[in-house]
Amino acid sequence: MRVTVSQEQDGLTLTALLRQCAPDVPPWAVREALKRREVRVDGERTAQDLRVRSGQEVRAFFPKSAVVAQERALPAPVIVFEDAHVLLLDKPQGVPSQNEENPLAGDSALTRAAAYLRGRGEKTDRLHLCHRLDVQTGGLLLLAKDDDAYESARQAFSERTFQKFYTCRVKGCPGQREAVMRAYLRKDAEIARVAVTDYPARGAQEIVTAYRVLEAGEQSRLEVELITGRTHQIRAHLSHIGHPILGDDKYGDRALNRRLGLRRQQLWATRLVVHAEGALAYLNGREFTTECPF
User: What is the pLDDT of residue 72?
Assistant: First the structure.
């Protein structure tokens, strides 16, 4: 495990830091790592329960038995596609793409993928998420197994050459059967929420979202193409035009969700079309799909 001490963690003992950043590692394993001088602070081995300082890098090597026990507790990921360079998962709802404080700890799509690969004897020191899905959004999530594949995917996502399609159920039905919508999105990090307007505003970024109606009705099914990839873009943009995603309490109709008995948002990443250069050029034009569970 590797972690850089944050300002909030300044002054913690090594034991407290390791337990906070690796909550799934048992306390005995933390004590054993210190006892055997398998903890390094800025590259220096230590057996003392030091107090750490902001900016220091801490690396810990836990007993293999503890790591194996942790990984056995993680559910196996659903694999849609795999080769020597990439791993494409069908991420379930309720599971984060990765844990923010320590990507290598806890239950996430990344740790499930790492446990799966290690279980087959593969190295995971170059395993990277190529993009992310919200915790309550399920579906296709791409990971790279090596640096070249990651750089190729990162560039493609940055330049928006990958095509990402989602299936969702919404309140009502848009008037047009299909459309490409443009608006502006402003993020408020303090309340973890975004706002969409039809006009530019200070701090807002342009968003482009396309959709087509698959099934029309009081609760319609849409396929949505995420052309720009902003925080909560699909959820907020569809809510802005009066057709919020069912099951989404943050941007949607909470009363309707309760009436329908929906506790999770009806949004799934169902199709990914590859357009990339470099290490992933061999996948150009490949389309990957997964079934929408609702």
Answer: 62
pLDDT for 65 beyond 80: no
Task: Give the up-direction half-sphere exposure of residue 212: CA atoms within 13 A in the CB hemisphere.
Answer: 3
Distance, in Å, from the CA atom of 244 to the CA atom of 107, rounded to the nearest integer, reads 29
Q: What is the mean pLDDT of residues 132-144?
A: 96
Classify 69 as helix, strand or coil. Answer: helix
Cα end-to-end span (Å), the chain: 38
Total Cβ atoms within 10 A of residue 170: 25
The pLDDT of residue 154 is: 95
For residue 24, pLDDT beyond 70? no
Catalytic site positions: 134
Q: Looking at this protein, which amino acid is placed at residue 212?
A: R
Task: Report which of 170, 178, 98 is spatially closest to residue 134, judged by C-alpha positions.
Answer: 98
**E strand segments, the chain:** 2-4, 39-41, 44-46, 57-60, 79-82, 86-91, 128-129, 138-144, 163-171, 178-188, 193-197, 205-215, 219-226, 267-273, 287-289
| CA dist 198 → 23, 176, 191, 239 (Å) | 44, 18, 22, 13
For residues 5 and 8, give the distance between their C-alpha atoms in angstroms, rounded to a whole number. 8
Say if residue 71's pLDDT is above 70: no
* CB 36, CB 46: distance < 8 Å: no
* DSSP code, position 162: S
Query: Distance (Å, rounded) from C-alpha 124 to C-alpha 110?
Result: 10
List, in order, residues 6 or more apart from 78 with CB less than 8 Å away.
89, 90, 92
Q: What is the pLDDT of residues 104-124, one digit of tens each?
A: 778 899 999 999 998 889 989
- pTM across the whole model: 0.77
Cβ(197)–Cβ(294) under 8 Å?
no
